[in-house]
Amino acid sequence: MAETRSIYYPVTFTPAEMAALLSLAGARTLLGLESKGLFPTNGTPWEEVFLRGRAELERDRWLDHVPGTVQYRLNEQLGMAAAVMAAPQCVLVTNLDWPGQSRQSVTHYLAAAVVEACFDGQDYQVTALRSVDIMLARQASAMQLPSQSPPWIEFELSNEQARQAVADPQVRRLGQWGVPASSAAAFVAALQPGQARASVQIMPVTYGRVETTKRVRVLYADPAGPLPGEHAGWLAVPVAGSRVRLIPASAGRLAEIVRDLLQLSGEHDG
């Protein structure tokens, strides 16, 4: 087998290849990227899918048959990535909702390493990342967050106040709740119909089961979309007491919040 193949850049795998990989790693599901066609339930023999995926992995030089045996040798880097996806300690799903665009989604798997994966409706793209810091930077870049926070003041609302604000955004009512005027105007702008949205779901995993789900939302206060750029917005973070904290968004603040949530979930720094 040619050991020059690397997954430290995006690599494409067919659903059959992904199913075979996960099977070799002892898994029959893919948290955060569940696909109805990954593990067949429509009568297609599982062995047929596995053999096709194994043949494709061998064709693409990820898998080598050991001569004179019935054994196969999997590329070491890919084997590590498959093990992380099969048994993650935490899964993060980042969703991007730009107006007029289909939802974009990317999933990160954390264990002994960090693996990024997405599904485009036909194939899977997988990349091994060298640290949690790189993952956090990629999330902020995908969300088009600025390096510096907007000059607004963060504030908190009760969950009920937040629901009222979303249903009927009013600067005056936010002011009555103690929200500073400049922040109230920027928050109302972020709640207007047609604004872009993004979110990160953080899901700690124990023995293959998701324990809880924590979500950080991004509410953009100016137009955001698929073209490169930086866009002002709010980070909405649930806090104790059935409340939500609204924080002026920046790449650094998002990284700080996600890292804190990972540490609360038992994840190590990276």
Your description of this structure?
A hairpin with a 6-residue loop joins β2 and β3 (72-74). α1 (15-24) packs across α2 and α4 (132-142) crosses α8. The protein is an alpha+beta fold and 270 residues long. The relative contact order is 0.14. The chain has helices spanning 15-24, 46-59, 76-86, 132-142, 159-167, 171-176, 181-190, 251-264, and strands at residues 11-13, 63-65, 72-74, 90-97, 104-110, 114-119, 124-129, 155-158, 197-206, 209-210, 214-220, 233-239, 243-248. Among the domains are: 11-87, no CATH class; 155-264, no CATH class. 31% of the residues lie in helices and 27% in strands. It is built from eight helices and 13 strands. It is elongated, with a radius of gyration of 21 Å. Strands 1, 4, 5, 6, 7, 8, 9, 10, 11, 12 and 13 form an eleven-stranded antiparallel beta sheet that branches. Strands 2-3 form a two-stranded antiparallel ribbon. The longest helix is centred in the N-terminal third of the chain and has 14 residues, at 46-59.
